[in-house]
Amino acid sequence: MGNNKLETISNLFEDSEIRSAWDSEKEEYYFSVVDVIGALTDSNIPRNYWSDLKRKLKQEGSQLHENIVQLKMKAVDGKMRETDTLDTKGILRLIESIPSPKAEPFKLWLAKMGNDRIDEVFDPEIAINRAVDYYRSRGYDDKWIKARMTGVVDRRKLTDVWKENGITKNFEYAVLTNEIYQAWSGMKASEYKDFKGIRKESLRDNMTDIEVALTDLGEIATRELAKKHRPYGLEQNKEIAKRGGKIAKNTRDNLEEELGESVISNKNALSYKYIDSNKLDKKKLTKGKEHDNNMK
Predict the structure, then answer these.
(1) Rounded to two decimals, what is the model's pTM?
(2) Would 38 disulfide with which of 46, 47, 66, 275, CB 3.0-4.6 Å?
(3) Over the stretch 113-152, which tens digit does the pLDDT of each residue have?
(4) Are 289 and 70 in contact (CB under 8 A)?
(5) Distance between CA 18 and CA 294 in Å, rounded?
(6) SS3 at position 116
(7) Alpha-carbon span 197 to 274, nearest angstrom
(8) Pairwise CA distance, residues 269 & 282, whole Å
(9) Model confidence pLDDT, tens digit, residues 40-78
(10) Is 22 helix (H, G, I), strand (E, B) or coil?
(11) The 3-state secondary structure of 11-61, one letter per residue
(12) Which H/E stretch holds residue 73?
């Protein structure tokens, strides 16, 4: 099993069916625990193996069981039954706890990933080179990559101003970003991703150059307005973000009037397409249950 097969969680179990559900709000997958255990062990009854392992982890002080989410997935008999699931982080933690030869390649991969991240702490250029290699491998030219790196720095300048203006929580940054997107594109970031048919992928990486320019304009305008007026707290900064996004919207309107067509595109840069509709049902989501009913 080469490392090229272990780039993402979805590639970890290429020879086994791992049921999953997509949470578009959190932009996270939830994976069936018993399916993962079935793929990585020789257990004839993965549900029982999971029950024993869960009890052992709890005794050792592991908090993994607290992150379990129960949701309904289609069982072998075709019926929808509740089963324990974990998000990507939880599944990787689970793999580390499975004493099986089949799990060893994954553990080695996780160790390498951890080692790489530690190396980047000492030499951040390694991370930059990794990003450049990543973009090149996906067909982006160096001019685009250079502009993308500049955009990352510009985005940081905006979040630095927000931080100075009393924004400290991750969800607050997301709210303000959505205000900018909503003002100029008519969509929140998550809605924009749905429109383009992407999930965890970067929205900017899948934009046209015009869309990137409008996004940059909205954020730069918001940054300068925030520096000028010094709003404090979420509500005041939301108003400034709307004004910044409105400046980008005015530019969009002018351009579309001249072009006679929308500059918002549903195109993306993916070499694949999501075809499943297995999305998480919020009404059937419960957390922290101790029993897996998948095999009942």
Answers:
(1) 0.79
(2) 46
(3) 999 999 999 999 999 999 999 999 999 999 999 999 999 9
(4) yes
(5) 13
(6) helix
(7) 7
(8) 30
(9) 998 889 999 999 999 999 888 888 988 999 989 888 888
(10) strand
(11) HCCCCCCCCEEEECCCCEEEEEHHHHHHHHCCCCCHHHHHHHHHHHHHHCC
(12) strand 69-74
